[in-house]
Specification:
Blueprint (H helix, E strand, L loop, with lengths): L19 H13 L3 H16 L21
Length: 72
């Protein structure tokens, strides 16, 4: 399942700030309040948004090679 399918935007959580410095402080406080698992889930969501999700690339490619044995 794609992580992006399970997330929704909370339109009531937006705020208007007066400066970029204030916005940086609010962002830092927000991410410091999250657990490491929540931060990793957010990171995975951003990765899937930027690079897409393809379940076929999750697996390792297997290579089969047949070698003939010739007795000496």
């Amino acid at each position: 399942m794609r992580a992006i399918d399970s997330f929704r935007v909370d339109k009531e959580a937006f705020s208007v700030l007066s400066s970029f410095e204030e916005a940086d402080e609010v962002d830092k406080a927000y991410w410091h309040s999250k657990t490491p698992q929540e931060r990793m889930a957010a990171l995975e969501l951003m990765r899937q948004i930027n690079y897409g999700y393809d379940p076929t690339t999750e697996r390792l490619q297997r290579v089969l090679e047949i070698a003939e044995f010739t007795p000496s």
